[in-house]
Amino acid sequence: MFLNGGPMIFTGQAHPVLAKRICEYLDCDLGAAEFSKFNNDNTFVRILDNVRHRDVFIVQPTAYPVNDNIMEMLIFIDAARRASAGRITAVIPYYSYARTDKKDQPRVPITGRLIADLIHTAGADRVVLVDLHAAQVQGFFSTVVDELTALPMLADYFAKKDISTEDLVVVAPDIGSSRRSRVFATRLNVPLAIVEKRRLGNNDQVETLNVIGNVEGKYALLFDDEINTGSTMIAAANILADKGSKGIYACATHAVLPGDAAQKLTAVPNLKELVITDTMPLEDRKRHPKITVVPIAPLVGEAIRRIHEGRSVGALFR
Ligand code: R5P
User: Fold this and answer.
1) What is this structure's pTM?
2) Domain check: are 112 and 229 in the same one?
């Protein structure tokens, strides 16, 4: 493949602030594009820069409004392909629908796979993703996948805090996240505990049953890939308080926090701090003195630089 010039970064309308920060990291200009909706609700994207034979990166987390942002990304990829881009990478810092990843009830879809197929069909050569709900979701993509993780950044944030490792235990808020939490705990050199949780039906209600491991007299550091309604974290914080934990820290790569979720979560009395990244826009409702944001742009920007230069992305996490 012959590619002209440096990487060209474009953004859809999902999270332009993040794309601008990525450009600042890479010291390049954001590519120009315009967006409109026809009065029949059809989305239109026009790329205003010449992308012929260029290495094009389209930044678009599939955040709220999820379906509009997915459609806009697909249309953007199609426009780039038809404009003879040399290579197209869809940079999707938050991949929605990743939780719809198996046929675990009769007559249900696997939407995580469907969207991956659409991205491929639209013309993406590669995708860059950040902390998928489950690593196996990578296998839904026929395109090349680079999955980045915010785990080291989040662990470093807590390593620099003034909490003795004697006083700290990492807690997986459910069994599904225990493997990832084990890596987090090892990185911080502290023990791991696991909350046993079960979901009630297809809505966002959860029930906690037990805590495996000792949290008594310690600060519990909950670690998850995503906080959506906050139900998982709130239920975990409550059971950890019952088990004698002296305070809760929580962190997650993706913070969806619809409606008043952030208010509910930050109102949990024993929650000392919630640390998230900005893979999704940080609307005012997600801002609170208890919420700290670790920027994701340097990680995504560095991955883009390495992909463009043909250097290892995995080396970023060793
Ligand atoms: C799923 O099981 C994930 O790892 C998270 O625990 C989940 O997305 C959190 O959702 P919520 O905040 O609505 O409980």
Assistant:
1) 0.95
2) no
